[in-house]
Amino acid sequence: MGRKWNNIKEKKASKDANTSRVYAKFGIEIYVAAKKGEPDPESNQALKFVLERAKTYNVPRAIIDRAIEKAKGNSEESYSELRYEGFGPNGSMIIVDTLTNNVNRTAADVRSAFTKCGGNMGVSGSVAYMFNATAVVGLEGKTSDEVLELLMEADLDVRDIAEEDEAVIIYAEPDQLYAVQTALKQAGVAEFTVAEQTMLAQNYVTLSGDDLAKFEKLIDMLEDLEDVQRVYHNVEFEDE
Description:
Blueprint: H1 2-16, H2 21-36, H3 45-56, H4 61-72, E1 80-87, E2 93-100, H5 103-116, E3 120-122, E4 131-139, H6 144-153, E5 160-164, E6 167-172, H7 177-186, E7 194-201, H8 209-224, E8 228-233
Antiparallel strand pairs: 1-2, 1-3, 2-8, 4-6, 4-7, 5-6
């Protein structure tokens, strides 16, 4: 399981680097989370999760503060959380999570991206059953054995712990995200390379040639849509 995470993360990081696109999407996600409950991460777990993830993407404090202040104000702007599922080239499967204030626009944009890249939309549940909701926490400076011992001391039984490149990646149940981070923070871990709830495919495929080109174009088009927050898929990129 483990290698798949860093493989996907590395490809995505190269696209997100030095752009404001990811920051704008975080601004919306933070606003929505803050609007759902108190605009205080200590009493709003959903907001706490988003802010922890924002740290791993180096989202500027000004963007975070602006989104929270907007939620505290009288803004009536509302967003719907929608998930789309579809198929790309040669057995590739894709899940698209969105936050939108215009459902018709979002549905049309997502469908257009699939169509232009040789894919097609599926019905709800046609793809998601092949993925597992997972909490992923990454850190550096410790070995997998050291992390396992720390989690055992905290009475936490996670799915898997793997050493990937120079990091240790922990795979846990989605609702264990906060507990895992808390246990590690109490043990002196100050920063995480990743801390989020994601969807990991049960099985991965590799693509090549025209199929790979179409797939990468499709993912780029989806991630560039203003309403799209997260894109998950089952394609493993080969090491370059």
